[in-house]
Write a structure and sequence with these properties.
The chain is mainly alpha-helical. The chain contains four helices and no strands.
């Protein structure tokens, strides 16, 4: 999404009017709080090893998506694969639902 945001001209942003760039900016900010926070929160609650005081953490590595299907569809598939082990990702307001609302970029 950030690639699409930076590839979209800021010249299209006009105060009081909708623009593609403004829509991407708003969606990006919402995704940071609505998607990344629940993932990071769930991750840091996972022990690194059984009975360990150390916990997992985000690595912030670059993830290379396959050319097809869309990046959105790939994220949804990853989430669907994890729902059995982490049911908190599902539900009406869960991560899985929010992924479905993202634009395909």
């Amino acid at each position: 999404m950030i690639d699409a945001l930076y590839a979209t001209s800021a010249d299209t942003v006009v105060a009081g009017k909708r623009s593609q760039r403004y829509g991407l900016e708003r969606t990006f900010v919402a995704a940071m709080g609505g998607l990344l926070f629940p993932i990071a929160d769930l991750l840091v609650r996972q022990p690194a090893k059984e009975r360990s005081r150390q916990h997992a953490a985000p690595t912030f590595e670059f993830y290379r998506f396959a050319a097809t299907p869309s990046k959105k569809d790939q994220l949804i598939a990853i989430c669907d694969d994890l729902l059995g082990a982490f049911p908190s990702l599902g539900g009406d307001d869960g991560l899985r639902s929010l992924l479905g609302k993202l634009p395909s970029v």
